[in-house]
Amino acid sequence: MQKLKLDHTLISFIPILVFLPITYQIIKDFHIGGLELFIEFFKSAFTPKISREILGITITRLNETLLISFTSWFISIIFGTFLGILSSDIFYRLIRIPVFIKYIFRFILNIIRSIHELVWCLILMQIFGINFLVGIIAICIPFIAINAKVISEQLKLISSEIIESITALNGNNFSSLMILIWSPIIKIVRNFGFYRLECCIRSTAILGLFGIGGIGTSIFLSFQSLNFNEMWTYIFSISSLLLFSKRIFKLFKIKGVNSYFIIVIIFISILISFYCIYFLINLLINNFYLSNLLLSKNIFFNFINLPDNYLKSIFDTITLGIFATGIAISVPPFLLLISQNRYFIITLRFFAFIIRVIPPTIIILILLMFNEPSLSLASITLGFYNAGITFKLLNDNLSEIDKNNYVAFKAIGISDRSSWLIGLFINQSKSYLSYCAYRSDIIIRETAIVSIVGSIGLGWQLKESLSSFAWNEVVIIIFTYSLIAIIGELLNDKIKSKLI
Amino acid sequence: MKSLIELNNISFQYNNNNKILKNINLKINEGEKIALIGKSGAGKTTLISILNGTKRQTNGDIKIYDKGFNNLDNSKKRKIGTIWQDLRLIDDLSAEQNVNCGLFSNQNLIFTLKNLLNISTFLKAHKCMELCQINSSIYSRNLKNLSGGQKQRVAISRSIIQEPEILFADEPFNNLDPRSCNYLKNLFISRLNNYKIKLPNTILFSLHKIDLIDGFTRVIGLKNGEIYFDIPRDKLIESDLENIY
Amino acid sequence: MNKFIKEFILPSFLFLSVFSSSIKAENNILKIGAIPDQNQEMLDRRFYTLSKELSKQLNVEVKYVPVINYVGAVTGFRTKNLDLVWFGGLTGVQARLQTKNSIVIAQRDIDKEFKSVFIVNKKLNLPPAKKLSDLKSLRNLRFTFGSENSTSGRLMPEYFLNIAGVKTSEFKSKKPGFSGSHDATIALVNSGAYEAGALNKQIFENNLKNNPKRTKNIDVFFVTPSYVDYHWLSQGDLDEKFYKGFTKKMKKVILNLNENNPNHKIILEMFNAKKFINSDAKQYKNIEEIGRKLKKIR
Q1: Are C66 and C40 in contact (CB under 8 A)?
Q2: How many CB atoms lie within 10 A of CB A188?
Q3: Are β-strands B80-83 and C29-34 bridged in parallel, bridged antiparallel, or unpaired?
Q4: Which domain range does residue A472 map to?
Q5: Position A1 in a domain
Q6: Are C and A touching by the rule of 3+ CB pairs within 8 Å?
Q7: A166 to chain B: nearest residue by CA?
């Protein structure tokens, strides 16, 4: 029998099939109960509340948001770089220390990376109380690991000839290391680092919805009291902040970074991180509750008292991740295939922007007004949120490549859609898919966000366990989360290597 | 005269492929200026890699300053310089920063940091670059934006600033115009300069342009991984050259 | 211009935002908090007025620290970020179990016999329940509680539902919703996003009286039997932190809030009480048992 061979273009479209079960469930669960609220929500977008009081709150909250995101950005970049170097191959090639240390670093980084910052935040908040340092630490933990991974992957690209030539100069090993890794690291920080700033702001906003402070908290409070006008003011302010951060980011991308600026940044972040460490240690020492907790035996690996519905939660979480990935992969090319009309694309871009800016937590809360909490609802929210991101990437890439083929196909009378497909998309599908594979790693981690709010899967279980202070369950859930994310990542690597 | 380097029966091959070098025996004495010639693929680059210790021979043994590479201490290793055929400079650093890398062997980490952060002036680097006729306007320019000839000069400066006793160079005059070729060759052979920079006493340059071998004291011809001839410059005759090409 | 932004504005902005932040230690301030059972503005007003009165009578600086969720209040109390907290029944018990030497200060007159109310959306046309077992007719509805850790919005309603033979998994979509606060429950049931819900009777009545528009689509379905609820809980070491006899004095100030004094009257009105009365940890034994039964206390 001939083996069915799937090409990249087809793979990009097949996941659209997830809409069959999702649409079925959503239609089944639909009710018009909250329609009024929903309409009000939309109408308020055009009449955001603007008064002196609200503007004052907005400014203080934005300042808090910036403080948390800037600080965590610094710390995560600096420490991410250090740990990235420590877990890179080149370090162990130049500095003579045992290689197993590298694997230890990688192992630890993998584990802390596999858990979403929101989960860290909820747990730390439960232990240490609400304090904005908790927010910083919660964002830093996974972000340090993410940055470390990116850095060590980039350092892999240094050619071994150059390493050879530098070592042949017979200098101090550390000097050789510095010379070799300096420019790649500056390059990454310049290109990728400033994008991370945007991620930090986004994360701070999302953690804010769970009480860490900043603009997110205001959004949440105004939402909870159904004060939509006020909420839109906050949402607009955070979206302009995101746009502004992009401006700064572009500024840095064009020109070089002043070296004194780098020194100042390093210095400040080291100071702040010392303060964070001091804060943590101080709390750990003075916190009888925590030390009792850590000493009690039944906290760790007490797998006899599993949370209720444990297996179903795992299943739900995995399905949620798969469905959301399916949506994120297939929706953008599908929409672009429908029409290449300029206005249609502008509308799509607008929606993609809106969906990226409104935190998914709020989206799911809105959807919950006229739908039952369900797996499909959570998948749609997470899926479209990520589709907003993949759409932007795909659209940007498509507009950059040259359109000769597309024009040529159209000239010989092939229909718009077919010529878009074979003239444009086919060249991009490979890189698009490999980005999506990377994105799906993130989606698996982000299931935590919608899962907590959307009453589905492990996140929900985590919230229940946290609110009843059931620490042994919390430990089990974190362990499970980490396991799912790591296995997912391994599978993804397999898929990625098949694709390329 | 003391012999600095001794190669005994050196062979080199990658895994199970053909031998790239076959039974090379060679003695290099202090003060010699050697030109290494041969067709491309004759094994010149490999021989240089073995001489500077970046590749290890499959058979045979090599002695530098009477020791094998494994026993050589750093102070001796620092006296060996190399100019690579593919230059092996760091693309994202400036010309000046690249040249300063040559000083590694004598300097500590602080120097490296100063170099990378660009917060000091480096007179020695400037001297060396001037010596190699690099225009001062490109000192701080990113290496990516330099022409092939300029990059070549940067690579030469990097090896000069190291002040090695022995310099191995793999086609060091590539990409250069004939006038600069002659200037630089004469610089290495005469060792005279106004900057008080100690140029290497013993050199081994691989060359593919025959007209550059004037001035060298000894010429070694490689063919198919073997030494085809190894004679003083004045005894070299036309037919030898014809045979190896 | 770009250079100016890069080299001057950004670093100075960073410095400013780092050092203008609230990392300062606050040692001699009495920090009061509350579970966020109602809309934030309401709470802000209530506790701001109370802080002013406490500060005046106790001669210490008093600061109200808003908390975003119930668990946050418990944790804040445990980590001593809060000195005096207005807890619900369940959260109070949780906080006491986690914090050594905490002292129950007082409760309101109404807290001794507190009640929850089950509400339904008018469109359902559901006749009010006459007895507890009639709660069965809430099965298969879209049902929302308040916060997960609310006593009157979750714990007791769930307890009474269980007595009536209704499990929470029997609601539509197999799970109840959690609106987060009592006001949110009203809004969600009123709008029809949820068909039924349970909340603090007291807050519902207040809304009924002051905000008829927000409750126009709501029918009362059932009022539960009474139980003990809200109370003030303070840290055990406030005497050392401020001055000798501080805790006693603070308790006295709270208990002496008097309807005849116009300033006090405003505060009491905002708490929906006539006065505060003496309270004791023993009163909450029953709540603890129910909490353990429903796995909210482990």
Answers
A1: yes
A2: 21
A3: unpaired
A4: 8-41+304-499
A5: no
A6: yes
A7: B101
Cα gap A88→B17, rounded to integer Å: 32
Domain that holds residue C274: 29-111+229-284
Q: Do A162 and B88 touch (CB under 8 A)?
A: yes
Arithmetic mean of pLDDT, A337-341 = 84
* A351 and A281 assigned to the same domain: no
Q: Does A351 touch chain C (CB under 8 A)?
A: no
Residues A63 and A151 in one domain: yes
Q: What CATH number has the domain bearing residue C212?
A: 3.40.190.10
Partner C, chain A 72-111, Cβ-Cβ below 8 Å:
none
| Subunit contact C17:A63, Cβ cutoff 8 A | yes
Q: CB A33 to CB C194 under 8 A?
A: yes
Tell me yes or no: is domain B1-79+201-245 CATH 3.40.190.10.
no
Residues of B with CB under 8 A from a CB of A: 52-54, 74, 77-78, 80, 82, 84, 86, 88-93, 101-102, 104-105, 107-109, 111-113, 115-119, 162
Is residue A338 domain-shared with residue A399, that is, in the same domain?
yes
Same structural domain, A332 and A437: yes
**Pair B4, B65: CB distance under 8 Å:** yes
Q: Residue C34's CB: how many other CB atoms inside 10 A? A: 24
In this structure, the answer to whether residues A458 and A380 fall within a common structural domain is yes
Chain A hits for B119, CB-CB cut-off 8 Å, are 259-260
Number of domains into which chain A is organized: 2
Closest-CA residue to C62 (of C250, C237, C239): C250
CB nearest to C72's CB, from A31, A211, A251? A211
Nearest by CB to B101, which of A164, A179, A184?
A179
**Same structural domain, A57 and A202:** yes
Contact A161 B84 (CB under 8 A): yes
Put simply, the answer to whether B92 touches A178 (Cβ < 8 Å) is no
pLDDT one digit per residue (tens) for chain C, 298 residues? 455 555 555 555 555 555 544 444 456 889 999 998 888 888 888 999 999 999 999 999 999 988 888 888 998 898 888 899 999 999 999 999 888 889 999 999 999 999 999 999 998 888 898 888 889 999 989 899 998 889 999 999 999 999 999 998 888 878 888 888 898 899 889 888 889 999 999 899 988 988 888 888 899 999 999 999 999 999 998 998 888 899 999 999 999 998 899 889 999 988 988 999 999 889 899 999 999 998 888 7
Whether B12 and B50 have beta carbons less than 8 Å apart is answered as: yes
Contact between A13 and A333 under an 8 Å Cβ cutoff? The reply is yes
Whether residue C22 lies inside any domain: the answer is: no
Residue A30 DSSP label: B
Interface A-C: count of C-beta contacts within 8 A: 139
Subunits adjacent to chain A (3 or more Cβ pairs under 8 Å): B, C
Phi first, then psi: what are they for B190, rounded to 5°?
Answer: -85, -25
Q: How many structural domains compose chain C?
A: 2
In this prediction the ipTM stands at: 0.81
Torsion of CA B150, B153, B157, B158, to 10 degrees: 70
Residue type, position C96, single letter? R
Q: Which amino acid is present at C265?
A: K
List, as ranges, residues 26-55 from A with C-beta within 8 Å of C.
Answer: 29, 31-37
- Which of the listed residues A234, A258, A287 is the one where a domain comes to its end? A287
Q: Is C173–A288 a contact, with Cβ atoms under 8 angstroms apart? A: no
Of A127, A217, A369, the CB nearest to C193: A369
Give the C-alpha separation, C281 to C293, whole Å.
19
CATH number at residue A440: 1.10.3720.10
Last residue of a domain, one of C223, C251, C271: C223
Helix (H, G, I), strand (E, B) or coil at C181: coil
Residue C246: strand, helix, or coil: helix
Q: Which residues of A touch C69 (CB under 8 A)?
A: 210-211
- In this structure, is residue A12 part of a structural domain? yes
